[in-house]
Amino acid sequence: MKKRYILINVLCFFSMYATAQDIKQKEVTRIISTLAADDMQGRKTFTPGAEKAATFIEQEFAKAKLQPFPGNKGFRQVFFHYEVKPGMQQLWLNGHTQAAGDRVLVLGAASHLEWNQDSPLESIRVKSGDNFYEQLEKLLRGAKRNTIVWVDSAHSKEFTSYNHGIQETGRHLTDSGKTVVMILKTAADSAIQTWAIKADQQVTPLALFNIVGMIRGTTRPEEYVIFSAHYDHLGIQVPEAGDSIANGADDDASGVTAVISMANHYKKQPAPARTILFIAFTGEEIGEYGSHYYAAHGDPAPEKIIAMFNIDMLGKVSKFGKNSIFITGYERSDFGDILNRNVKKTPFHVYPDPYPDQHLFYRADNAALAKLGVPAHTISTARIDTDTLYHNVRDEVRTLDLANLTNVIKGIITSARSIINGTDTPKRVDKKKV
Q1: Please, which residues bridge with residue 377 across strands?
Q2: Residue 397 three-state SS
Q3: What is the pLDDT of residues 231-282, one digit of tens each?
Q4: Contacts of 294 (CB under 8 A, 6+ apart)
Q5: Are 273 and 222 in contact (CB under 8 A)?
Q6: Residue 263, SS3?
Q7: Which domains are present in the chain?
Q8: pTM (2 decimals)?
């Protein structure tokens, strides 16, 4: 009886990987070792290391014979962020000149502006009981028009702290074509009848790029499944034991390795029912720049995206043991249930996020699309509560379990089977609750 039980397990193991035998540890090792090599210099956004990583991913997509997304000349989805350093600022309230330096905050890539109460603007107030940083985030992500924001004096401490950081270091931001100007009111301000502001800024455009490859679906080509990971990391850091390069092997060369491996796998199979997009996002470590841009400007429209497998940190064995992953936001759709059904008779296991207090669902590139209702979840094996190498210069390939990484990639392919072939469609995420 015991021998029969062992035989069944062995058969299940091989059945699980029957469609993914082309995922080889040697190839996984080659890809991750290239991405996490010292000559990538930590792949920090806006550096030559990030450019080198992007070029490597493009080459891998080309070798896999992926197609660029229609309308793109190549695999790069190019967009711009702007390095903005404040210059001259002048403020008048009720005809009186004010000290503008501590009271005016310009959020936008306009090099010069002159506004007053007659300008065609949206006007918003951040009241004393509002969360200042929450309101700021909404304004940075969602301004549809040029906007003047009057900030209650109760937020003086937060406003001043944030503004001083901008004045000293500048900031990077996406140019939405809209500018937001925040003005801090003081307790002494009487009712403001007239106002005017002039401001200059030094604006430097900086190119960024997501890398996007595609396999066109057959029977449901206008329905899309995304496999994604971020290719940026932290770059050069303060030296530890003579090492200053944050190689980012687990975070997230492991995820990009999975995406490239999956691209190679699926291209060798019969064409899928649904179109598959393979995306390497930029700028995750500095604010999820790439995924936010994709969500706001990407094609296809979010309602056409059936599921997103965002992959972040697969290099370590999860707390549940080998051949296992966890999914962030498991309870927000039936995405995880579908994956579990597909691996039910295998030794591979899918679990809910064991670290809810870490808010991982909101801390990765799935979040931007989940906010639009897409069943977008991050898949990981990270030991985020105990991993001393997280965001550390010692996050190198030699610290990873590459055999387990290889098997986990195979397991994810098995878990995605019914979504790729059109049998299952995950329920949408309630975007009002994200």
Answers
A1: 309
A2: helix
A3: 999 999 999 888 999 999 999 999 999 999 999 999 999 999 999 999 999 9
A4: 77, 210, 279, 281, 368, 369
A5: no
A6: helix
A7: 17-80+207-433 (3.40.630.10), 96-193 (no CATH)
A8: 0.84
